[in-house]
Fold:
Amino acid sequence: MDNDKIVTLLNQDLEGEHGAIIQYLTHVYAMGEGEMACEIEALAREEMRHLDWLAETIVELGGVPSLKRGAMRMGGKTVADWMGNNVLLEEDAINLYGKHIQAIDDPQIKRLLKRILSDEESHHGNFQHFVGKAQKEGAKDVRGNRTDKVVQTLNWGIEHEYTVILQYMFQSYMTTNKEAKKQLEDQAINEMQHLGWLAEKIVDISASPRIEYAEVDQSTRTADMLRTDIKIEQEVATAYDRASREVEDPDLRKLLIRLRDHEVYHAAVFSDLLKEEEHQG
Ligand SMILES: [Fe+2]
Ligand SMILES: [Fe+2]
Ligand SMILES: [Fe+2]
Structure:
């Protein structure tokens, strides 16, 4: 099998991981605090590591990691229903990894996929257990249906954060500048925190987080990446600043100011990297 074909298969796997992460995080936020939500969040984090390994492998093979999100299983009314959907999603992944392990000859990639498969088998068991646990404990959807301007602003923030998480991860895989790679990874992790804080806040104020992303910049030259990122960071810092002055809730104001300060920091880090990159030509 040539590299292009392997990349195609690995990108299918990567898209599946992306879908799983969002499906599980949606449940985590919808359930609010609690032991089961924490355990599911830990599983979502394992899917993120899978996604990262797959993306790095794709780039090593000369490919480009996909930015598409794979199919999710989002129906269901109760937490037990959701856990049942997660069991099915893990079955989808187990089937796909099984096929790809059969199809790919490269021993290192085979080994990686087997490693991931064993995690998915373990997750499958975890979610089966959570179906019963959710029924027994009467786990609930704690989201509300407020849809005012504050909620819209926070959901706009989620869309921004989700988009830059994908963008900075994509750029960290594609750049050849080691320092830029490290910073982009770091800031992507920081944006994941932002997404989590916003989603938790939305549930806190009796609304429902909308976890969707906008268009991701796919520049492949490091200087172009950084220019785009600086512009986005400056825009979002301004937007959070404005929002912080419009909201009444003091805790929410604090959150927005903290986000603003982080984005100002990101813009400065990226500006320094751009100066260096331009200097080196
Ligand atoms: Fe996974
Ligand atoms: Fe952010
Ligand atoms: Fe940022």
In short: Helices lie at 3-31, 35-60, 79-103, 107-137, 149-174, 178-204, 222-246, 250-280. The chain has eight helices and no strands. The chain has a mean pLDDT of 97. Residues 17, 20, 47, 50, 93, 116, 119-120 surround fe (ii) ion (ligand 1) (CB under 6 Å).
